[in-house]
Amino acid sequence: xxxxxxxxxxxxxxxxxxxxxxxxxxxxxxxxxxxxxxxxxxxxxxxxxxxxxxxxxxxxxxxxxxxxxxxxxxxxxxxxxxxxxxxxxxxxxxxxxxxxxxxxxxxxxxxxxxxxxxxxxxxxxxxxxxxxxxxxxxxxxxxxxxxxxxxxxxxxxxxxxxxxxxxxxxxxxxxxxxxxxxxxxxxxxxxxxxxxxxxxxxxxxxxxxxxxxxxxxxxxxxxxxxxxxxxxxxxxxxxxxxxxxxxxxxxxxxxxxxxxxxxxxxxxxxxxxxxxxxxxxxxxxxxxxxxxxxxxxxxxxxxxxxxxxxxxxxxxxxxxxxxxxxxxxxxxxxxxxxxxxxxxxxxxxxxxxxxxxxxxxxxxxxxx
Length: 368
What we know:
By secondary structure, this protein is mainly α. Helix content is 76%, strand content 0%. The chain is built from 16 helices and no strands. It has helices spanning 2-59, 71-83, 88-98, 104-113, 118-125, 127-152, 177-186, 188-206, 216-235, 238-271, 275-283, 285-295, 304-312, 318-327, 334-339, 341-367. Helix 1 (2-59) packs across helix 10 (238-271), helix 2 (71-83) packs parallel to helix 4 and helix 5 packs parallel to helix 13 (304-312). The longest helix has 58 residues, at 2-59. The chain is globular. It starts with a helix and ends with a helix.
């Protein structure tokens, strides 16, 4: 009898351990998956922002003269700047607008096509689709910019401020051997570590060891990041790595991108554990579309990542991400608040109307 009681006790203990193990797996397995995806995206964003920041510094001080000319030239150039991942292109356009160098239509063009820092995440996770979306928004933004000037008038900014572009960036000779030798002797560990992480990350991504299996387009994209990222790490001066990479990208942008990515994946996981929200998202997509447009009014790109992640996880339709991408513009328009709050609201309302209109049309035509 005692043996039977002892056997039952062991059996109950075994079942308890098994249930505890299963519960732990249910908690830790999604958490580890979320962490892995977040690290992959954060590293991809890190190296893409390095490329964009490098181009920004290299071209600084040479853009103002390019904007002089016809309205169509302004629309196209502002669309190109807005299509650049991140917010520096939008900052440049806002500065030119505050100087009275471009009109409201050109500013709207940039606001329509830009997606802020979330463009980096989109390109990191689905580069082919991100390219197609950006190309479509590029042409749409030019049309909307032209229509804005047609309906609201094409006058330049009547109250330009006296903001100045910073032209004090040091210029450097490309692949100056003596400078490279000096910089590497001072920052060998930093540059070697960056190169090692870049090479390992791109290789593991291309081979499919990290994340999902990469498409041909993604492999080419990663290859370009590897080549140009390596060139920048090897030849950029100490000032660039310290001020632009460490202080700006790593300290200012990377933590926010990483934390928002974790938050977005966590929200997705928890949302679809909660039956009510799952039914709301799946059964009432027009409500989600409208909410995505309203959240896009907030001058911060982080919330957009939630809708982007929902779309990439096949939880919502393309109309949602189309609306969100059109309306939100990251924090690129924040400097406009200091110049003209009325112009800021005017641009954001135009974005909202355009986003809800085209997002709604796409939903009614292809997703009903």
